[in-house]
Amino acid sequence: MPELPEVEALALDLRGRLDGHAIAKIHVAQFSALKTFDPPLSAMEGTLVDDVSRHGKFLDIEASGVHLVLHLARAGWVRWRDEVPTIPPKPSPKSTLALRVVLDDGAGLDVTEAGTRKSLAAYVVRDPDDVPGIASLGPDPLTDDFTVDRFREILQREGGKQLKGVLRHQGTIAGIGNAYSDEILHAARMSPFKPAGHLTDDEVQVLYDALRSTLGAAVDRSRGLAASELKGEKKSHLAVHGRTGQPCPVCGDTVREVSFADSSLQYCPTCQTGGKPLADRRMSRLLK
Ligand SMILES: [Zn+2]
């Protein structure tokens, strides 16, 4: 799933490519992806692209006061094409194409979604805050006003909630998902199950530094990469996320996995939990 660093890089890449171009046509191939009907998609056709930006994990293409907002969800992606077919795509359950934006020079982008669980969402709005998931976003962790004091207030407010859940809850902090929350907690050497409100001032500072450096480094590495290169880039730099059974790059211990909410998380016992494996709560609940 693309998170803050990848969406930031996508926005930068597309900003350069779309700058000065008009949108000729937007084709919808997967109708369930389009969540709005007013203004219509045609409101963007024939208008110049003004900007491409990011809100949390949402990508925002703005043309003449209308915004095409995309949430790529778990398996969505944006693929740049120097030349897109001129005939409209046929909707097909076998195709991964959800949406196609055609530019005035014949280039364009395909918004795709792999897999069968279709959760990619596209919105056409006059104000990004008209998208419910954007209106409810917490602060962006890479902005200048996301200070350690602000972070401490957030953690204290969350009280007994576990760090893993707090970091990736979009209404609390914007843009961090399952992968980077694992990576940030590993960098901070903290248990994903540690209660947010119980951190000492020193621990808040450690977690804050880990958050800023992990996300900042990922954005720096992703900057300038084309959309097609971003996924591999992300994967090759993960220390624990998605690496169950492999050695921790810091200490060599085996990366472990435990279920969390609707998915699972990965962590290193030696680095993060005093060498003790975390109990799988879902499993123990099932066994009762
Ligand atoms: Zn380790």
From TrEMBL:
**The FPG-type domain, residue ranges:** 239-273
UniProt superkingdom: Bacteria
Q: Which cofactor does it need?
A: Zn(2+)
Q: Which UniProt keywords apply?
A: DNA damage, DNA repair, DNA-binding, Glycosidase, Hydrolase, Lyase, Metal-binding, Multifunctional enzyme, Zinc, Zinc-finger
Catalysed reactions, as listed in the record: Hydrolysis of DNA containing ring-opened 7-methylguanine residues, releasing 2,6-diamino-4-hydroxy-5-(N-methyl)formamidopyrimidine
Pfam families (alphabetical): Fapy_DNA_glyco, H2TH, zf-FPG_IleRS
State the PROSITE patterns in the record.
FPG_CAT, ZF_FPG_2
- Domain named Formamidopyrimidine-DNA glycosylase catalytic: residues: 2-120
Which CDD domains does this entry report, sorted A to Z?
BaFpgNei_N_1
Against InterPro entries, the record matches this protein to: FPG_cat, FPG_N, H2TH_FPG, Ribosomal_uS13-like_H2TH, Znf_DNA_glyclase/AP_lyase, Znf_FPG/IleRS
PANTHER family from the UniProt entry = FORMAMIDOPYRIMIDINE-DNA GLYCOSYLASE
The similarity comment for this entry is:
Belongs to the FPG family.
Name of the protein in its database record: Fpg/Nei family DNA glycosylase
Which organism is the protein's source? Nocardioides aquiterrae
